Amino acid sequence: MASSKRVYLLLGPEAGEKGEFLKGIQSSLEREFNSQIETYRFYAFETKEGEIVGALQNNSLFADHRLVILSQGEALGSDQIKELVAYLKTPSESATLVIMSDDTFINSKISSLVPKSETKIFWEMFDNRKADWLKGRFSRGGTAIKGDAIDLLLELVENNTQELGNVAEQLITYARSEQIEVITSQSVEQFIQHTRQVSVFSLFDSIAIADYPKAVETLHHLFNDSQNHPISILATLIWQLRRLVSLQELLAEGLFFEDALKEVSVMGKEAPIKRRQDISNYGAAVKNYTLEQTHTIIARLGEVDLLLREMPNDYSMLLFERLLATIIVKKGAKSPSFPFLSLIRDAKF
User: Fold this and answer.
1) Sign of torsion, CA 255 261 267 268?
2) How far apart (Å, rounded) are the C-alpha atoms in residues 64 and 93?
3) Which residue, 348, 349, 345, 347, is CA-closest to 309?
4) Among 308, 301, 304, which Cα is nearest to 239's?
C-alpha cells in the first residue's frame, strides 16, 4: 500500500469542497518544502502512456517536491491502471499523487492501494442545505438576497459549491456596482444578461422566435466560452421552457396575456415575466409552439441531459445542434436515433 500523506484519492460530485481540500494539500506541501514544489495536472482521457508515472518518478532540478494531480480517474485505461498500480506499490517520497474523480468509486486495483485515511468522498450537498449555504455566502458578502433569487440561482447554476460560490461572488460585485440593495430574481436575470453579451437567455430568445440559424450561432458562442458548462446551459433552457409552459397553461385557462405574465411560476415558485424584451420573446414563443409541443420539447431536453452525462464532452456540441433542430424545426418531434450515438455512449474511454 502507498505511504500515507503522499497519495490521495478524492472522489464524488461535490467539486467545491473537493477543490478546497486539494488547495489544503497544496498549501501543506508548500509549507513543508518552503514553497519549492512543482505542480502537474493530467486528465486520464488525454494522457499518453508513461506521462503520469514519469512526472512522479523523475526528480526536478528546480523543486524539492512534485504535486501530480490526475483528474477524471474513472476514465483510466487498462494500461494506465497497470502503471499506477505498479507505482502505488512503491511510491516516490519526492512526489505526492492526488487522483480525482466525480464518481464515488474508482477501479479497485487502485483504490485498494490508497490508504483509507487518504481516501475522501465528497457527496453533493443535500437540497435542503443548498439554499441556506447560498444565503450565508451572500450574507458574508454584505448583500441581501430574496428567496426567489436563491431559487433561480439553484435552478440555473451547476449544483456544487464551487460553481455556486463563483456565481455568488460575481453577483455580489454586480449588485454593488449597480447599487442594488436587495437581489431579486429579476436582478439575477439582469446580471446574466449584463455579464455575458451572449448568454443562455440569448439562446432561448432565438428558440422563442424560431430562428434556427441564430440559435446555432448563439450556441457556438456559448461553447467558445469555457465558463459555460453544457449541463448548466441545458438546465437554464429547461427552466425557461417550464416558464413558457406555465404561461401557456395560464392562457389556456382563459387569462389575458398581460395578466398571465404576472402569474407565471416555475416548479411552484413565482417567476413573473416583466422585462419588455422577455415579454416580446415569450409572446413569440406562444405563437410558435403549442403547449403540447413545449411539453414534448422539455422531454427531449431530459433525454439530452442523460446523454450529456454519459458521453465525452467532445460530443456535446453535436448533441446540442441536433437538439436545436428538434426544437425549432421539428417542434419537439423525436428525431431518428443514429447508431453512432449508442456506440459513443457505450464505448469505454
Assistant:
1) negative
2) 10
3) 345
4) 301
This prediction has a pTM of 0.49
Q: Which helix (H) or strand (E) holds 82?
A: helix 78-89
Walk across the sheet containing 95-101 and list its strands.
37-43, 65-71, 95-101, 7-11, 119-121
Taken as a whole, the chain contains a residue count of 349
Residue with cell 509549507: 31
Looking up residue 232, the CATH number of its domain turns out to be: 1.20.272.10
Q: Last residue of some domain: 86, 121, 156?
A: 121
How many helices and strands (H and E) does the chain possess? 16, 9
Q: Which domain holds residue 340?
A: 196-349
Alpha carbons 334 and 348: distance in angstroms, whole number: 27
**Count of Cβ atoms closer than 10 Å to residue 252 Cβ:** 11
List, for residues 201-259, the tens digit of each pLDDT value: 889 999 999 999 999 988 988 888 776 788 888 888 998 999 999 999 999 999 999 99
